[in-house]
């Protein structure tokens, strides 16, 4: 298939591009390097060496003989999108092209504005480019489990049947996100749902939990192909931060009480989920929502796991609760359902002690590159 990956330079976009190219798909990646720019501006560069897309695509081609076509351009600019869609004519588009950091979106007016403009325009342009040039193209959009927030009822897979005054109807599950970034994903979903209803486009919206890990089949071939693994307070997700802190001898930064509970998944499972969604496309006129995580943990449970495995490896891991920089529930119910991807055939790669030890071992190779100044939270929710 001809697969266009928007945000193909990212932590997930790049490994997805390699996995699809390795399978023999025609892959094009489009990226504006927004994340790299923000990382430089905020002193949040990735742990691992991070050659630019062109350089990584050539390393990948030398090793595999497979080509990944690279376009540097802005998905929030419609002229760029229309050129790419009219020339490449994708059959599937994987839309990762969003400013993905909750803390960055909460820093100030400018960062909120960048997040809002980039994320909504990228989604809007994707919808219009598909409608204008490739109406049958399946849009696979990365949403987030954070769209649902932490409600005191079960989190269903996208939709909720509501009975009101004796009548029933089905609606998008109520959403109440905890940052502007997460809210842009709520707005994306609403916009996609409108265009699905109005124009019959086909969309899968993947509600993904925090991802961890730095190893995929293709990334393991050469260190220049490793996804941009972040441990900073801006782009680093909690498990990746804890693993790096354990290696650096920094006490694990549990925010507040540590009862914050989320659905997590290994980066290799992200690749499998996107592949399953692509091979089993949504129908025309369907917004299919799939909850994308494999295991549920509280922050305290993650910290305990990293400590147990790290101590076993001689790391002497400390855990320290610090004031929570975010406004969020620190103790709450979290019962989230996710059967859709399992039904499509997902076999989860769970967070066993061996998996945790493997990640710690890999991060140890980059110990000298860990900058402690990037670790403590620098953004407080107002
Ligand atoms: N947390 C800590 N200590 C840390 C970092 C985070 O206790 O050092 C806590 C946070 O307060 C939060 C939880 O861990 O309660 C998860 O935080 P996170 O930074 O790993 O995840 P989040 O900000 O929600 O965002 C990440 C990705 C985002 C994705 C989202 C999925 O950056 O792009 O959409 O995970 S989800 O969390 O399900 O919304």
Description:
The strands form four sheets. The chain has a seven-stranded parallel sheet with strand order 3-2-1-4-5-8-12, sandwiched between helices. It has a three-stranded mixed sheet with strand order 9-11-13. A two-stranded antiparallel ribbon has the order 6-7. It starts with a strand and ends in an 18-residue tail after the last helix. It has a single domain (2-374), classed as 3-Layer(aba) Sandwich (Rossmann fold). It has helices at 13-22, 34-41, 53-64, 78-88, 102-105, 109-133, 180-199, 238-248, 267-279, 299-312, 340-344, 353-364, and strands at residues 2-6, 26-31, 68-72, 92-95, 138-144, 159-164, 167-172, 202-208, 211-212, 252-255, 261-266, 287-292, 295-298, 319-322. It has 382 residues and is α/β, with parallel strands linked by helices. Helix 1 (13-22) crosses helix 9 and helix 6 (109-133) packs parallel to helix 7 (180-199). Sulfoquinovose-uridine-C1,5'-diphosphate is lined by residues 100-102, 144-146, 182, 208-210, 237-238, 241, 253-255, 260, 262, 299, 326, 328.
């Amino acid at each position: 298939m001809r697969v266009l990956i928007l945000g193909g330079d990212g932590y997930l976009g790049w490994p997805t591009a390699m996995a699809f190219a390795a399978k023999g798909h025609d892959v094009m990646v489009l990226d504006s390097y927004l994340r790299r720019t923000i990382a430089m501006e905020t002193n949040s560069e990735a742990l691992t060496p991070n050659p630019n897309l062109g350089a990584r695509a050539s390393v990948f081609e030398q090793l595999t003989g497979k080509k990944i076509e690279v376009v540097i351009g802005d998905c929030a600019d419609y002229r760029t999108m229309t050129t790419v869609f009219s020339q490449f004519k994708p059959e599937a588009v994987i839309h990762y092209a969003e400013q993905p950091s909750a803390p960055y979106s909460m820093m100030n007016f400018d960062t909120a504005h960048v997040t809002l403009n980039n994320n909504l325009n990228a989604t809007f342009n994707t919808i219009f480019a598909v409608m204008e040039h490739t109406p049958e193209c399946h849009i696979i959009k990365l949403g987030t489990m954070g769209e649902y927030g932490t409600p005191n009822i079960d989190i269903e897979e996208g939709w909720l049947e509501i009975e009101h005054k004796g009548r029933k109807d089905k609606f998008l599950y109520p959403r109440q996100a905890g940052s502007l970034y997460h809210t842009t994903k709520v707005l994306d979903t609403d916009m996609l749902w409108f265009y699905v209803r109005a124009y019959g486009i086909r969309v899968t919206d993947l509600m993904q939990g925090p991802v961890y890990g730095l190893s995929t089949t293709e990334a393991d071939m050469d260190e220049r192909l490793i996804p941009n693994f972040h441990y900073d307070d801006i782009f680093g997700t909690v498990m990746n931060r804890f693993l790096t802190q354990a290696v650096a001898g920094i006490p694990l930064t549990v925010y507040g009480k540590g009862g914050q509970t989320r659905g997590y998944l290994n980066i290799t499972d992200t690749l499998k989920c996107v592949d399953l969604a692509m091979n089993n496309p949504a129908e025309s006129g369907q917004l299919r929502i799939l909850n994308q995580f494999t295991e549920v943990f509280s922050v305290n449970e993650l910290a305990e796991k990293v400590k147990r495995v790290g101590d076993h490896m001689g790391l002497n891991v400390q855990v320290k609760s610090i004031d929570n920089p975010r406004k969020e529930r620190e103790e709450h119910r979290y019962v989230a359902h996710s059967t859709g991807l399992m039904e499509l055939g997902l076999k989860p790669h769970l967070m066993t002690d061996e998996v945790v030890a493997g990640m710690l071992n890999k991060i140890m190779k980059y110990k000298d590159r860990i900058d402690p100044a990037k670790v403590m939270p620098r953004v407080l929710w107002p």
